[in-house]
Amino acid sequence: MDIRVLQYFLAVVQEGTVSKAARVMGTTQPNLSRQLNTLEEELDCKLFDRGSRKITLTEEGIFLYRRAKEIVQLARRTESDLDQIRGKASGIVHIGGIETPAIKALGKPMASLYKKYPQIQYDFFSGRIKEITNRLNHGLLDFGIVTAPYHLSNYDYLQLPKKDTFGFLVHRDCPLAGLACVCPSDLKNYPLWVFGQPPESQILSDWLGKDIKNLNVISSFGHILTPAQLVEEGIGIAFAAKGLVNTGPNSSLCFRPLEPQIDIPVYLIWKKHQILTRAAEFFLKEVRRILPQ
């Protein structure tokens, strides 16, 4: 598969029609159509259901769309990394992480590195642990930020200084707001917003001593903003780490830790035996120099 053809394919999906995609990619509609037909012949499958108005993807097309985005992104990054090797200390450090207050620890190393090498930039991806490790394993990230419990045997890692303290984000009018901490028996039938999927949700399961399927779970989430806004409207309570949402005196939300308390280590990880770009090497060196080991 040619990278350029994959870019054509992505453009068609994103623009919705071949004619619009051709204009965006600076080619003719007949040429783009020929390239797509050749791609379907090469893969021996139909990628599009070609309707009268808008192109829609087949199941095979959806699969290729997801993979093509990763392939094109990796190709672009490879070109950028080669430019770094040939040039000065510049480029982009790609970091993926869960939502965690512990990421603040990277602020000092990043600020120090900026003073030395202002050409180095950062690209942050926020997601769940499985999304982060998948991108890390496919070379789309230099580093990941994850919590335990997670198997770290395939990675080199540094533990960040602060741990995540888990608990529940509740509305101040909720009866749980009157408690100093929350025990498993306090949950009753409260509708729950649950942070992530395994392994993140394993934290809650271990604390409860049972599977979260036995609870009244509204939904899982990867980003706290949406459930926090809905908890503000009185819709359930959210299981999350302390410090991600404003719970000050002027907020309608408050945080209640678990009893027994759960403090989870947070790690900066990268693939074992990975050859880091120059920018990533400088970043890691600065992290090791500044953060306590």
Account of the 3D structure:
The protein has 293 residues and is an alpha/beta fold. It folds into three domains: 3-75, Arc Repressor Mutant, subunit A (Orthogonal Bundle), CATH 1.10.10.10; 89-162 and 266-290, 3-Layer(aba) Sandwich (D-Maltodextrin-Binding Protein, domain 2), CATH 3.40.190.10; 164-263, Periplasmic binding protein-like II (D-Maltodextrin-Binding Protein, domain 2), CATH 3.40.190. 38% of the residues lie in helices and 22% in strands. It has helices at residues 3-15, 18-25, 29-43, 59-86, 107-116, 129-137, 202-208, 225-232, 278-290; strands at residues 48-50, 55-57, 91-97, 120-126, 143-147, 155-159, 164-171, 192-195, 217-221, 237-241, 253-257, 263-264, 266-271. The strands form three sheets. Strands 7, 8, 9, 10, 11 and 12 form a six-stranded mixed β-sheet that branches. The chain has a five-stranded mixed β-sheet with strand order 4-3-5-13-6. Helix 1 (3-15) crosses helix 4 (59-86) and helix 5 (107-116) packs across helix 9 (278-290). The chain is globular.
